[in-house]
Every structure is written in C-alpha cells, then in structure tokens.
Specification:
- Chain A is 77% helix and 0% strand.
- Chain A is mainly α.
- Chain A has a domain of 164 residues: MetI-like fold.
- The longest helix of chain A has 34 residues.
- Chain B is mainly α.
- Chain B has two domains: 50 residues, no CATH class; 205 residues, MetI-like fold (Orthogonal Bundle), CATH 1.10.3720.10.
- Chain B is globular.
- Chain B starts with a helix and ends in a 7-residue tail after the last helix.
- The chains are: A mainly alpha, B mainly alpha.
- Chains A and B meet through helix 2, helix 4, helix 5, helix 6 and helix 7 of A and helix 1, helix 4, helix 5, helix 6 and helix 8 of B.
Chain lengths: 255, 267
C-alpha cells in the first residue's frame, strides 16, 4: 500500500524547489509537441480500429467453434502475450527489414527490383502495434461472446431474420461491453507503447512515449518530461471518458 | 439451396479468420526459424541448420550477465509478490469492509496506468529520496509494483469461491489459526497463488519500460540488452536470445500447467 501511494504525487512534483507552469506552457504552445500529441492520438485511434476489425471475427469464431483444435487456436492467441515485446518486434524486423524476408521473396519472384521500405515508417510501427495488441482486443470480446446464449441467435434465425440481421441486431449489441473494454485497453496500450515505435520506427516515427523517455533519459529535462507524460495521460483519460459516454448511450437502447 | 448460398461467404469468413491467426503466430515462428538458420539473414528458403547463434549467445558476456540479472530479478519478484499479493488479497476479501472496492482498485492500479508513466514516476521518486538508480533494490521494487496486480487478482478470484465453513470446522476441531491457514486455506487457494506467481515471473522477465528507466548504468536485463542489440544489429544472435527466453517462459507455463492446470488462470 505504501508503495502504491507515492506514485502520483511524485510525478507532479517538479524536481527543483518551487512550482511553475512553464513546462506546461511550453508543451502546450510549441507546435512540435502539439503535433506529436496529435499524431499519437490519431495513431492510437487507427490502431484500435484495425485491431477491432481484425479481432472481432476471430473472437466470434473462437467463441462459437466446435473444432477440436480450439485449445490450440486459443494458445495461438495467447502465445504473443507470453513473449516479450522486444522479441516480437525482432520477429517483425526479420520480416520487414530492407534485406528481410518479404523483400527477399519479392525480389526472387522478380516483382520488385530494389527493396521496398517496409519499416522505419508508420506502416512498420502500425503492423507491430496491431500484432502486439490484438490479443488484448480478442480476449475481452471472446469472453463477452461466450457469455451470449447461442439460443438467442437460433431464435432470431428461426423467426426469419437473415444471418446479417441476426448479427447486427442480436450479437453485435450484446457484445458492446466486450468491444468497449477491448478498445479502451488497446487504445491505452498503443498510446503508451515505447519499444515498438523505437524498434520498428527508428527515430522517424516520433510519438509521445518516445518523446517523454527522450526528454527524461537523454535530455534530463525531468519536469518537462513529467509534464508531457501527464498531458498525454490527461488526454487519454479525456478521450476514454468521452468514449464511455458515447458507448453508454449506445448500450442504453440494448440492455 | 440456402446452404449452398451461405457457403462462399462462410468461406471468406473462415479465410479471413485464418489469416489473422497466422498473422499472430508468424513473428514467433520466424524468430525460431532464424535462430536455427545458419545464414546471417533469414532468406527463403532457409539455408540450413546451425547452432552457431546459440554458441555466440552463450559466449557473449553482456548477454549472460543480463540473463543472470533477469532470472534473479524474476525469481525475487515472484517470491515477494506472491507473499504480498496473497496477504493483500486475503485482507481485501476477508476483512476490508466499506473500502473493499477502493482497495481493490488501488491494488490493480499499476496495470491501469501505462508502465512507462509508472517508471518515470518511480525514477523521479528514487532521485528525490536519494537512492537513484544505483541499487538493485530500486529495480526490484519497480518490478514488484508492476507485477503485484497479477498475483493479487489471481488469489483474489480463487478466494471468491472459497467456502469459509471449512476453516471454521478446522478451528472448532482445535487447530490453531496458523495451522488452519497452512493446512486448509493455503492448499485450497493454491491454484490462484501458483498461477499468480507464474504471471509475476513472466511479466517481470519480459518487463521493459520499468527496467529501462530504473536499471542504472551498471546492470541490465535481458530484454533491454536484446533491445540495445537489435537497435543496431539484426544478426540472428538476437533470435537465439529470443528462443532461450521463450523457452524459459514456456518452461514456467508448462510447470504451472503441471502443478495446477492452466484453467485456473485469470486474465
């Protein structure tokens, strides 16, 4: 308990005696930092949407499948979680690098002459982020769909609803809570990711966590780094708050 | 007729789902292949089997030091967190009255806050109280903080379905409080305790942001060492390191499976 309690005050307290708003003013007026903040949030949103689009069908499949390989598929989804993020990034580097697997295959097939730039840009970072955080999207939705009685689907179908209509009117609304927790989790993780942007983005993709660590570890501008971190955190909380409000309105009609 | 109509979109759906499964598993497979591949770059088709990257890894002093630090850190974290998490969960479930939800929220707050913020906060705090990043202790505290929620949640959920009359029976038959705990309570919540410990070890072993900020100059952990290496050099030594690290994690998971079964895990 004691260990927990000191975290928050220590962030907000400037390292030097006295208090100042200068750090916040600097962070919030300089177009460079604002730009990084905007990029971070946009990037987080896009990653979250892609994760949802990829993760939802898989969650649904895994929840409903009767395949005997279910355990294996489940392990396949969990396995990235048990392997360190640096290792997963390294895997992507091997695949995406200029002399990596994809470029190698494409060259041998004669499709391209010189290599295609697949990493050290937003694409590479995006691939890495989606891969690393996809399980966090799948698991909550999976849990949620497993809790929906399949009889509901059968009832809707037997009453004459088409497959798509059943999905839109029955399954989707009932799985909104799972979607909500999955998306929030992925969004928070994405905007606070540090390793992936550095390894797969080089120094060309600058987003908030990279910037904060750079300020703290390399420039030793602790108060400024802390201010940036808190701004990021506040922005994230604000966005999530907004999102929960919207979702609550959506879910009101259903439950 | 209708069944035939459904088939093509069912096929597209299954195809899409399999692509995602493959996407999830690919990097891991690639790392494993690269580690045993003899070539400097992973090309298609692979060039042949070789263990030379493993040899390279085991002969590299920085990597071995980092591995030792990581293992020591993981095991110490696991022990501390298991004790702390179990006692905290016991207290919150059994004795906390109106503060129950609040205490629970505090206990899991380290996973709600991005690890990098926790790391920065701890770093600033360590400098203010004057220990800085010089001590192993500071790093250990950071790891304990970040893994505590996992142990707590696992024990918490196994205590939830706990039948307290078993304890009362033991007490009424004359067992001391301590004896009741070790003979009745602990064996019954064992799955939660062990899976919590496993999580703590794995999270600590793979932990990155906290270690990066708190490690100090004179010691480094395996993920950090790997990160520094991969930043400048992609050679398959990194793949060998990854494979060893995956093997250790897998070993822990299998051990847990053997001891308590993986069904008892709580995410």
């Amino acid at each position: 308990m004691v260990v927990m309690s000191f975290r928050i005050p220590s962030t907000s307290k400037p390292f030097e005696p006295g208090f100042t708003l200068a750090n916040y003013i600097k962070a919030l007026t300089d177009p460079y930092y604002l730009n990084v903040l905007r990029n971070t949030v946009l990037f987080g949103l896009v990653t979250t949407i892609i994760c949802l689009a990829l993760g939802y069908p898989v969650a649904y499949h895994l929840a409903r499948t009767k395949s005997r390989y279910k355990g294996l598929l489940y392990a396949g989804i969990l396995s990235p979680l048990l392997v360190g993020v640096v290792i997963r990034c390294y895997g992507w580097i091997v695949i995406l690098a200029d002399n990596g697997l994809i470029n190698d295959i494409l060259k041998k097939m004669g499709i391209i002459q010189s290599h295609v730039q697949l990493m050290y840009n937003y694409f590479g970072v995006g691939v890495g982020l989606v891969h690393v955080f996809l399980p966090f999207m799948i698991l909550p939705i999976l849990g949620n769909i497993q809790g929906i009685d399949p009889a509901l689907e059968a009832a809707a179908r037997s009453l004459g609803a088409s497959k798509i209509k059943t999905f839109l009117k029955v399954i989707l609304p009932l799985s909104l809570p799972g979607i909500q927790s999955g998306t929030i989790l992925v969004f928070v993780l994405t905007i606070s990711a540090y390793v992936i942007p550095i390894l797969l983005g080089g120094f060309k993709v600058m987003i908030m966590p990279t910037l904060v660590v750079q300020q703290v570890l390399e420039s030793f501008l602790w108060p400024f780094g802390a201010a940036l971190a808190l701004i990021m955190f506040t922005a994230a909380v604000f966005i999530i708050f907004l999102y929960i409000k919207i979702m609550a309105r959506l879910m009101k009609g259903v439950v | 007729m209708e069944i035939r109509k459904i088939k093509p979109d069912r096929f597209i759906y299954l195809f899409f789902v399999s692509v995602v499964y493959i996407f999830l598993i690919t990097p891991l497979v690639i790392v494993l292949v690269a580690a045993f591949n003899s070539g400097k770059y992973l090309a298609f088709p692979p060039e042949g089997f070789s263990l030379r990257w493993f040899k390279h890894f085991f002969q590299s002093q920085p990597f071995m030091d980092a591995l030792k630090v990581s293992l020591k850190l993981g095991i110490l974290t696991m022990i501390c967190v298991t004790i702390l998490g179990t006692t905290a969960a016991l207290y919150v479930v059994r004795h906390a009255q109106k503060w129950k939800n609040f205490l629970r929220l505090i206990m899991i707050s380290p996973i709600l806050l991005p690890a990098i913020l926790t790391g920065i906060a701890l770093l600033l705090y360590y400098y203010i109280i004057g220990i800085g990043t010089k001590t192993f202790f500071g790093l250990l505290m950071g790891h304990i903080l970040i893994t505590l929620p996992y142990a707590f949640l696992n024990v918490y959920s196994s205590l939830y379905n706990f039948n307290r009359s078993l304890e009362e029976v033991a007490r009424s038959l004359g067992a001391s409080q301590l004896k009741t705990f070790f003979r009745i309570t602990l064996p019954l919540i064992k799955p939660g305790v062990i899976s919590g410990a496993m999580f703590a070890f794995i999270v600590s072993f793979d932990q990155f942001p906290i270690s990066l900020l708190l490690k100090g100059i004179e010691r480094t952990t395996l993920p950090i060492q790997l990160f520094d290496y991969v930043r400048w050099d992609f050679d398959p030594t990194a793949a060998a390191v990854s494979t060893v690290s995956i093997a250790i994690t897998l070993g822990v998971v299998l051990l847990t499976e053997k001891l308590v079964g993986l069904d008892s895990l709580r995410w």
